[in-house]
Input
Amino acid sequence: MLSFFNNFYFLVAIKLLIGLLSLSFVINISGKGNLAPSNASDQIQNYVLGGIIGGTIYNSAITVLQYILILLLWCIVILGLKWIKTNNRFMGQLLDGQPLVLVNHGKLNIANCRRAGLSAHDLSFKLRAAGYYYWEDLQRVVVEQNGQLLIIPYGEENPKYPLVTDGQIQTDILEIIGKDDTWLTETLAGMGYRDLSRIFLVEYRDGKLLVSAF
Output
């Protein structure tokens, strides 16, 4: 009986160590510094991870080799989803949702507030926490996939958010500065950047584009 318990706890320790190592590996490879979920797919990944480790670590019927294979499959799925979301805007929005405009030129969009699950109290509280008390004074308010608010007041000539990230055009930010996709692509082409997929980041400052490309 003693040897059985010793063997059982030894296998649990091995599985726990493997789980911790695989988790550290995925975090480092995916570029995330912590486990705080920033969107829907991140939350699901955390749930699945908890189910894998919690459901198999104490199950003596699952061997260490089977456990390693399960974690390997999980790592492949996570990294595959990350690549898809980074390189395909449509799939990224399908998996994580997309930002919702709550305020546009001082007008409140109640339907989008409801879609985002924000009550009038929640929205007012978030605006007050950011230092704004009246939505009529705001040019644009957008709720991101992680629930954070992107707030642009009137008179903001240089938006604090990029126009292009990972080759994807941020149309909401373009609208804030009164531009469109055609203007952006033509301006970038004039600067020698014709392939958006090779552009890492584009920022707008004092009427000029600051470009970082691969």
In short: Residues 2-94 form one domain. The mean pLDDT is 78. The radius of gyration is 23 Å.
